[in-house]
Structures are given as C-alpha cells and as structure tokens.
Design goal:
Elements (H helix, E strand, L loop, with lengths): L1 H4 L2 E5 L6 H8 L5 E5 L3 H5 L2 E2 L4 H4 L7 E2 H5 L12 H27 L5 E5 L6 H7 L4 E6 L2 H11 L19 H25 L5 E5 H6 L1 H12 L5 H10 L30 H17 L10 H4 L1
Parallel strand pairs: 1-5, 1-6, 2-5, 6-7
Antiparallel strand pairs: 3-4
C-alpha cells in the first residue's frame, strides 16, 4: 500500500448501501485485492451518545463519536495534543495488519502489484482514515438513507443474517428507536464522507449513487476503475456485472432476512408505518433534500429542510 496509500482505496458512505456487491465485483478485476468490513472505524469512532439514547430520550439528539467529545482532553488516548505521535504509529499498525492479509491473497492469486480496496470500515472515521493515507482513493457510495434504514430494520429480525454478527430480534415497541438510531447513523456518516469528499483531490475520488450502480453496474465499475487507475476490458466489466446482478442470485439466497435483500430503491415505503416514516424523515429529511432524493411518499422534504 506504500507511499501513504497510493495503492489503497476505501469504499465509504454507509453500510447496507450496496458496498458488498460493489466490492465483490471489484474483487474480480485484476489487480484488486478486496478487504471486506474490517470494522476499523468502529474501534476508532465509538458512537456517542449510545444507541439506546434514541429510544429513551425526549430531546433532539446529535450523533457524534467519542473523539468528537474528548479530542481536546490531554488524557484521551487519541488526544489532539499528542496527534503527531500517535498518527504515524496508527498508520504503521494499519499498514502492517492489512499488509499481511494482502500479501497472502496476492500470492494466492498471483497479483504482483495489488490495488487494495477496503469496504466500509465504518465511515464515521472517514476523515481520519483519509488523513492517515493522503494518497489513497475515495469511492463514495451513496444510497437513499431510507432504504438503508429499512435494510437494517429487516436485519434486526429473528433468524436474519445479521444475528450472528451481533444484531438481535427487535421488539415491536423497539422498532421506532431503532429506526431513529439508524437514521442518525446514516446522516452522520454521510456528512463526514461528504466533507472528506469535498477536500479530496478530484483525481483521487469518485461518487457513485447506489441507484446508478443498480441501473448500470458496468458503467459504475468503469468509473470506479478509472479512479483506481486501472483499465479493464469493457467486455470484462459487462461480464462481471451480469454475473453478479441481483437477478442472478438464487431465489433462496435473497429476500427478507437475507444479506442480499431487495435491491429495489424506494422499497422502504413497504416496511414501515406512517409514524415510523415520519420519525425517520425528521432526521433524514433535510439531508435527503440536499442530496436531491425524490420523495414518492408525499412527505415534503424541501419543507423539512
């Protein structure tokens, strides 16, 4: 990954945004070596307040990270005061950890000069990760936050794919709190990645909307590969896109409770009550309007903004 990330790229934006799909396709493009969900940002960006707050508080809450609240404190491990000391050490740790995995995969697949693509390490720390690796590439994968929230709501059901990873079956009375929490997470992550994207050299960044990826995956892959500095054969990209389409997934491996769920923009309208939709829009409305997302349900996002 040397030269402070010259052979490194991040897929950032949000979980449940199609990032697994995008990474799987990129992993079939030479010389990409994929790293799936390392959860690095969860260690570096612990949420504050805790998720329970969205189910138990009667006031409007502003989501942040522990570092947002503590970075000026001298005793905080990642204190601004000692930034010049811990930043190089943290970069070295990440390089060493990713490096050994990439070396194993590169040997196995015969890749001489791998381009490492890391999928959604927890985007609330996008600014820190990109500062650590100033030459790395940013793939901003943006999806309508309402579809992201709906996807997580489905994941918190009995028997879902996410249970083994630490999720739990949410009760009927807990749905509203979960929806509010996931809406706040999407908004925060989107804001952090937006800011990082604006500061990035245009040659080192690309924004792909999930809706574009769904409509023409081969073209989205082409744009991402151009940002990575690689030029696969267009027919190869078409073949990869076709082989990895939602339609090609066996029926028993997709749908409710599955990691591959709907792939249908706007399906959030079918899984929430009017009260839940209203609560979600209170948090997401202004950001959705800013990003130009339509509102087919009749909620006035422009007015909310």
């Amino acid at each position: 990954m040397g030269e402070q990330g010259g052979r490194l790229a991040w897929i950032l934006g949000s979980s449940r945004s199609g990032s697994t799909w995008l990474l799987r396709m990129l992993g079939e493009v030479d010389p990409v070596i994929p790293i799936d969900d390392p959860h690095l940002g969860h260690h570096l960006g612990v949420w504050r307040p805790i998720p329970l707050a969205w189910a138990t508080s009667d006031v409007d809450l502003e989501l942040g990270t522990l570092s947002d609240h503590k970075h000026e404190r001298r005793d905080f491990f990642f204190s601004d005061r000692y930034r010049e000391h811990w930043m190089p050490a943290l970069r070295e740790l990440i390089e060493a950890r990713f490096g050994v995995q990439v070396s194993e995969d590169a040997r196995e697949h015969g890749v001489a000069e791998p381009m490492v693509v890391v999928k959604e390490p927890a985007s609330q720390t996008a600014d820190l990760l990109l500062e650590l690796f100033p030459a790395s590439r940013l793939i901003f994968l943006l999806r309508d936050g309402r579809d992201v929230v709906a996807s997580w709501l489905d994941a918190y059901r009995s028997g879902s794919w996410a249970i083994q990873g630490g999720a739990y079956p949410v009760s009927a009375s807990g749905r509203l709190g979960l929806i509010r929490w996931q809406a706040a997470v999407w908004r925060k992550r989107t804001e952090v990645v937006q800011a990082a994207f604006e500061e990035r050299d245009p040659a080192l960044r690309v924004m792909i909307r999930y809706e574009e990826l769904r409509r023409d995956p081969a073209d989205a892959l082409r744009r991402v590969c151009a940002t990575l500095g690689i030029s696969p054969d267009p027919d190869r990209l078409e073949s990869i896109a076709s082989a990895n389409s939602y339609e090609s997934v066996p029926f028993g491996e997709k749908g409710q409770g599955r990691e591959i769920r709907r792939a249908q923009p706007g399906s959030w309208r079918e899984s929430m009550t009017s009260e839940e939709i209203a609560a979600m829009h209170e948090i997401l409305g202004p950001k959705l309007a800013e990003l130009g997302y339509p509102d087919p349900s009749g909620h006035d996002l422009a007015r909310a903004a």
